[in-house]
């Protein structure tokens, strides 16, 4: 299952719409977040510069860069934006009726209600990144990777050392392991067993089905596809790329500040058309 939040959450696919954030203004007249309707080709600019987008019931929940990364909600019908928490947040995830996020000032993991009420701190230490798998939270600190229930109690150390780009893959965890030179690593949470792919150093990564996609620092940020079933990797895009996102069976990424898309199997990359 893909995890666009780990790559910035700049693309979100819902029934009937794509949401995409143009950070540089190379795609449209002004930088911002746009709603693309694939049925009629219409493009609508939303308020804000949205990162880490989540959707429920026609509402987007995200961190707004234009408002100092405040936690915001956008009504996709009325286009009204409401600040839920005037605090800098990143890696926003909506799960189980709660919004989870890392507070950018103290670096700790929090959660709150979808209206911004009742914020509560879940970790005592700063969190580098986190993900969720079922009813379990997994987060990385300077000390190691931990697991805990959604309320943050009863944490358990799974692996020592720092991690980046932590995300779930089936019942396992994917991340870049600092102790291994930030090589792509697959961790089995129950056994602690690690599989390290030294040829891949992710600058950004995502997964879909049996494949992991990463911008590989060992080859100037070009995109590689790793087959976890057979263990082989293949370069599928030869230019430097960043911010890997997956939507509608396609791989999306930025190149020189512009969004491109290509089949997950590789092939010709095409610049995203905003209409």
Automatic annotation (TrEMBL):
Residues 3-258 form the Prolow-density lipoprotein receptor-related protein 1-like beta-propeller domain. Coiled coil: none annotated. Gene3D superfamilies: TolB, C-terminal domain. It comes from Paenibacillus albidus. This is Prolow-density lipoprotein receptor-related protein 1-like beta-propeller domain-containing protein. Pfam families: DUF5050. InterPro entries: 6-blade_b-propeller_TolB-like (IPR011042), LRP1-like_beta_prop (IPR032485).
């Amino acid at each position: 299952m893909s995890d666009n939040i780990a790559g910035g959450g700049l693309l979100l696919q819902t029934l009937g719409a794509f949401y995409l954030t143009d950070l540089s203004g190379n795609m449209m007249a002004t930088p911002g977040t746009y709603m693309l309707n694939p049925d009629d080709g219409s493009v609508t600019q939303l308020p804000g510069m949205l990162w880490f987008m989540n959707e429920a019931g026609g509402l987007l929940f995200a961190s707004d860069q234009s408002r100092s990364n405040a936690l915001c909600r956008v009504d996709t019908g009325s286009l009204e934006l409401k600040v839920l928490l005037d605090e800098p947040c990143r890696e926003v995830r909506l799960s189980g009726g709660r919004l989870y996020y890392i507070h950018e000032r103290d670096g700790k993991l929090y959660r709150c209600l979808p209206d911004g009420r009742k914020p509560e701190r879940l970790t005592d230490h700063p969190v580098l990144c986190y993900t969720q798998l079922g009813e379990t939270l997994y987060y990385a600190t300077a000390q190691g990777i931990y697991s805990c229930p959604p309320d943050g109690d009863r944490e358990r150390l799974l692996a020592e050392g720092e991690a980046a780009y932590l995300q779930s893959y089936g019942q396992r965890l994917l991340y870049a392991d600092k102790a291994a030179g930030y090589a792509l690593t697959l961790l089995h949470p129950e056994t602690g067993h690690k599989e390290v792919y030294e040829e891949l150093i992710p600058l950004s990564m995502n997964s879909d089905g049996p494949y992991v996609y990463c911008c590989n620092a060992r080859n100037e940020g070009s995109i590689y596809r790793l087959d976890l079933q057979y263990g082989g990797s293949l370069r599928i895009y030869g230019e430097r790329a960043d911010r890997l996102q997956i939507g509608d069976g396609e791989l999306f990424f930025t190149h020189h500040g512009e969004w491109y898309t290509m089949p997950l199997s590789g092939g010709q990359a095409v610049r995203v058309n905003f209409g």
